[in-house]
Structures are given as structure tokens and as C-alpha cells.
Specification:
single chain, about 325 residues, MetI-like fold, mainly alpha
């Protein structure tokens, strides 16, 4: 297992290198620049733009800009933000406002939102899928399939609009785009929006894998030996049915923790996802690079955790091979 972890960490180096090159190239071939202004807004004087380019090394050749950025990133410095005056990207992403706890940083808020959505999705989706498989062709099964189909077919931003209209504008139960996130009410709509899609997907996938597991020969053998149905389901069927499900849980958790871009933007949530959207709109190159590299790192870490979980769910799987 130690060899697997070391090998994956070493493999992460070329992966991040390739992702950084692709991201850097796409940013610089896209039209516009960080100092451009929308039509109708006052444009910066050429002398000011020249000074800004010199300050942030944007007047250097592209290859030199890339080398300078990556040299700083290796040392944990994700570079200065172009839009937040005298602030570093690392501080913007991970440092909380002055006098506030660490979980109120951009990443802290997004991680809290993502973890809540993930826990709700797992605690609802897995049991619902298991019950649906065990109660096949009943009203419970049909209801679960209907929920899973609607949840999978509905885009997240459509679900966000629906929840905002119904529970925000019509019923006035929850705020739509609050400026104060200290209470629990502002968190309800974005959390529900984030968890619904994953809940529906887990329900459908768990049902399919559970149906396949309970039809295997070893399940019939266990029942023929007189084992209690609860033991057959929990000890034999469930453990094998969860192996395919584990493949999506790691990347899904990483995606939720780093933020669902459009959901955060629609609810004006002060997290990583909204920060990334604003960085793209404002062409903040350092912010885009920092967010992308951090997201890629989390995805790689999640995949490593999935491989380790494989070995726990099924000892026949050699995670070190």
C-alpha cells in the first residue's frame, strides 16, 4: 500500500504539469486580457496597462511567464491576484476574513457546503437504492426510479432556479442570494441543489449493482445454507455491490468540496466555485491557474482514496499491484 501511495504521488507530478500547460495555453490564446474593460466602462490608459504588465511580468515571453508561475507554485505561492489589490491567490482561497474562523475562508465555506451535500446524498441515495433493489417492482421501487430519473435528467442550474422560485419567491421560506451566511437558512437551498443530482445518481447506481449482486450464485449458496436474510444482504451482497459505487464517491466528493461553479454563482455563495467564475470573467490568470491546479490535486487524491477503499471492500483486489 505504501508503494501505491508513493507511486500515485509521483505520477501526480506529470499530471499537474500537463494540466498547468493546457490551462496556461488556453488562458493566453483566449481573446482579451486582465486589463480589458467591458464596453461602456472607462478603459485604462496605455501607460497604466504597461506598468501593470511590467509589475505582473505579463510583458515577458509566454514561456517565461509560465516558468515564473510554476516556480512560485512549487513553493506554495500561487501568485498575486490581478483583481484583488495586493492580495495573494493562496490567501484569497484559504485565508478567512480577519477575525473569523478558518472554516469561513473561501475554501472552508465550499468544503462545508460540499461535505453537507455529500453526506446527505450518501445517507439518502445508498439506502434508497438498496431498498429499491430489495423491493423490486413495488411502489417503492417505482418511486425511487422516478426520483432517480428526474434527478439525473434535471441540470443543476434548472433545479436551482426551481428551488429559488418556489421556496424563495413564492413561499419565502429561505433567502435567495443572502449577504449574511451566519445562520442555517441561507445554506439550505444551495445544499439541497448540490445533493439532489448525486442522490439520484447514487440511488440508480446502487439499485443496479445491488440487483446484480443478489442474483449471483454465492448469494443463492448463502441462502441455501440457512443464513439469515439480513446476514446475506449485509455481509455478502452489500459489500460487493458497493465496489462500483465507490468509484464515483471519491471524485464526486472532490467536485463538491471544490465547489459547483454555477450553483455557487447563482446563490451568490462566497466560495471557491464563485471565485473561479469571477476569475474567468475578469481574466485573472493566477486565480484561474491556482483553482485549476488545486482541483486537479483533489481529484487525484480522491482517486487514490477510492483505490484504497477497493482493497477494504474486496481483499482479492491488490491495491499495490
Amino acid at each position: 500500500m505504501q508503494q501505491l501511495i508513493i507511486r500515485r504521488l509521483l505520477w501526480l507530478i506529470p499530471v499537474l504539469f500537463v494540466i498547468s500547460i493546457i490551462t496556461f495555453t488556453l488562458m493566453h490564446i483566449a481573446p482579451g486580457g486582465p486589463w480589458d474593460r467591458d464596453i461602456g466602462r472607462r478603459q485604462l490608459p496605455p501607460s497604466v496597462i504597461e506598468n501593470l504588465n511590467r509589475k505582473f511580468h505579463l510583458n515577458e515571453p509566454a514561456w517565461k511567464q509560465y516558468v515564473l508561475y510554476m516556480w512560485g507554485a512549487i513553493r506554495g505561492d500561487l501568485g498575486p491576484s490581478y483583481q484583488y489589490k495586493d492580495r495573494n491567490v493562496t490567501d484569497i482561497m484559504f485565508a478567512p476574513p480577519q477575525g473569523r474562523p478558518i472554516w469561513e475562508s473561501r475554501f472552508g465555506r465550499t468544503a462545508t457546503l460540499g461535505l453537507m451535500a455529500f453526506l446527505i446524498a450518501v445517507s439518502v441515495g445508498l439506502p434508497l437504492g438498496i431498498i429499491s433493489a430489495l423491493k423490486q417492482n413495488t411502489i417503492i421501487d417505482y418511486g425511487s426510479l422516478f426520483f432517480a430519473t428526474v434527478g439525473n435528467a434535471t441540470p443543476g442550474f434548472v433545479m436551482a432556479i426551481f428551488l429559488m422560485v418556489v421556496f424563495g419567491l413564492m413561499l419565502h421560506w429561505f433567502p435567495i442570494a443572502p449577504t449574511n451566511w451566519d445562520g442555517w437558512k441561507p445554506w439550505v437551498l444551495p445544499t439541497v441543489t448540490l445533493c439532489l443530482g448525486l442522490t439520484a445518481y447514487l440511488t440508480r447506481m446502487t439499485r443496479a449493482t445491488m440487483l446484480e449482486a443478489i442474483r449471483q450464485d454465492y448469494i443463492r449458496t448463502a441462502r441455501s445454507k440457512g443464513l439469515a436474510e439480513r446476514v446475506v444482504i449485509v455481509r455478502h451482497a452489500l459489500k460487493n455491490a458497493l465496489i462500483p459505487v465507490a468509484t464515483v464517491l471519491g471524485p464526486a466528493l472532490a467536485g463538491l468540496i471544490t465547489g459547483s461553479f454555477f450553483i455557487e454563482f447563482m446563490f451568490s455563495f462566497p466560495g471557491m466555485g464563485r471565485l473561479y467564475i469571477q476569475a474567468v470573467q475578469q481574466r485573472d490568470y493566477s486565480m484561474i491557474m491556482g483553482n485549476t491546479l488545486f482541483y486537479a490535486f483533489l481529484i487525484a487524491a480522491a482517486n487514490l482514496v477510492v483505490d484504497l477503499v477497493y482493497g477494504w471492500l474486496d481483499p482479492r483486489i491488490k491495491v499495490g499491484k
